[in-house]
Amino acid sequence: MPLERFSAAWREEYVATTSAPSNGCVFCALASEEVAESTGVLWRSTHAYAVLNAFPYGSGHVLVLPYAHVAGLEDLALEVYEDLFLTLRRVVVALKAAYGADGLNVGLNLGQAGGAGIPQHLHVHALPRWLGDTNFMTTIAETRVLPESLASTWRKVHDALLRP
Q1: How many CB atoms lie under 10 A from the CB of residue 79?
Q2: Fewer CB atoms near the end CB (10 Å): N or C, the chain?
Q3: Residue 123 annotated among the catalytic residues of the structure
Q4: Is-contact 124 84, C-beta < 8 A?
């Protein structure tokens, strides 16, 4: 049985803020956007950046990506790989500070068979989790309910990323 969806038309502006580049990759388009609530981009480092997931699994769902348009970890130069994971570590610390969660999910879905929604551009998911955070909507109605807007999520995580 497929997961049901509620209309969230208020999110259209966020999803449409970036036009895809000639290669059609939304992550490459986001790589050149400024750090701003309107773009969803939270943080930039030398070789990687963090952005809100436009279609979050839960509150605080962040993606960490290399600027490089590559599909696999093995395709990254060592300095890009190191910067990607240092950025991921910074995001994890920020998510813990911003949400006080009981835990986090951090993961990569590599390739289409591995579940990647955009398999051509490597990205790492990081999202806070709480004990008992599944509820009847997800379990019975197969629908997710997010208790905060993407704008609120952006402010919380961005502020936490700026802390030393």
Answers
A1: 10
A2: C
A3: yes
A4: yes
**CA proximity to 92, closest of 107, 81, 80:** 107
Phi, psi of 43, deg, nearest 5:
-160, 150
Cα Rg of the chain, angstroms: 16
Q: Which two tokens stand for residue 124?
A: 């790492």
The answer for residues whose C-beta is within 8 angstroms of residue 67's C-beta and 6 or more apart is 31, 47, 48, 49
Q: Find the helix or strand (DSSP H, E) in which 104 lies.
A: strand 103-108
Given 3.60.70.12, 3.30.2130.10, 3.20.20.70, 3.30.428.10, which CATH number is that of 20-162? Answer: 3.30.428.10
Which entry of 61, 123, 125, 158 is annotated as an active-site residue? 123
Give the pLDDT confidence score for residue 58 in this predicted structure.
Answer: 86
Torsion angle, alpha carbons of 102, 148, 20, 34, to 10: -80
Any idea which residue has 């379990």 for tokens? 139
The pTM score is 0.81
Q: Write the DSSP assignment of 112-130 as a string of letters.
A: TTTT-SSTTS--EEEEEE-
pLDDT tens digits, residue range 121-160?
999 999 999 887 765 545 455 556 667 889 999 999 999 9
